[in-house]
Write a structure and sequence with these properties.
Length: 62
């Protein structure tokens, strides 16, 4: 009885390996997402404010 159980488990394991080896795989090609953001205006405003503050602190700079 013990040998039958071992053989049955081995047969089930071999069957599982064979079935999983034949499973088809699907490859999906996904294009990358591109996001364009315009941050130029915000950076310019911040720099402009900083330059104005520096000129007020140092009027003889220019």
């Amino acid at each position: 009885m013990n040998k039958r159980r071992v053989l049955a488990l081995m047969a089930a394991g071999a069957g599982a390996v064979l079935v999983s080896a034949c499973a088809p795989t699907i490859h999906v090609k996904v294009d990358p997402i591109t996001i364009y953001a315009k941050l130029d205006a915000d950076v310019r405003i911040r720099l402009d404010d900083e330059v104005k503050a520096l000129i007020k602190q140092n009027p003889d700079l220019f």
